Amino acid sequence: MTQKVALITGSTSGIGLSIAMRLAQSGHNIILNGFGDPQKIQWTANSIAEMYKIEVVHSNADMTKPDEIEKMIHMAQNSFGSLDIVVCNAGVQHVAPIDEFPPEKWDMILAINLTSAFHVIHHALPLMKEKKWGRIINIASAHALVASPFKSAYVAAKHGLAGLTKTVALEVAEHGITCNAICPGYVQTPLVDNQIQDTAKARGISPETVIRDVILGSQPTKEFVKVEDIAELAAYLSSDHAAAITGTMLSIDGGWTAH
User: Fold this and answer.
1) Which of 119, 145, 193, 218 has CA atoms 20 to 30 A from the CA of 225?
2) E strand or H helix that includes residue 88
3) Helix 227-237 and helix 14-25: axis angle, to 10°?
4) Residues marked as catalytic
């Protein structure tokens, strides 16, 4: 593949980091984004750059702040001269009955899981249109397609992300740009580990029961989805071979949404 520039939000750990590493493996320069220990993040960036002989920079832009998102896109342009691939992956979760759901949690989840994707796409599209080529990948969820109790904000945000994906795909279809959403089932990431504890508290059951009956109970394979498999799908969608795939919700959920 021709070397391109890829920005992955929420990529200092979990799914985002795995996608960043896979795109680096394809020879693309990478912009990491996310919070964490600065020394550890720098070590990760240096390791990826050395391993794949590409360039890696990091932005600590807060996905709840539109001005920081805009500065991150400008940083990408200033660092590499272009921005070809964006993966909107940043996400947070909170589990609670809706009548007990803290309004501030609702606002934060909608801001990070949905509104940040709008701001990233809004500022990245002009750069893609200049080159008549671009790939936008939104990391949605099986919850972009189906609902679960106690996750009102997350489900609403992911359903919104599905709608945003389809709308953007239609708008840019004649510009050489695609926009798709990957809809994973449960992946054992720090986000899900925290969710297991929250769900156990909300439902009054043990964490082990949550994993068996709530988490993997939704997935016919009875296995967590692997981050490497999600990264491989993202790499394909980022390639020229996926030019005809746009406006789609691609499930990678162990059969969850086949029910």
Assistant:
1) 119
2) strand 85-88
3) 50
4) 154
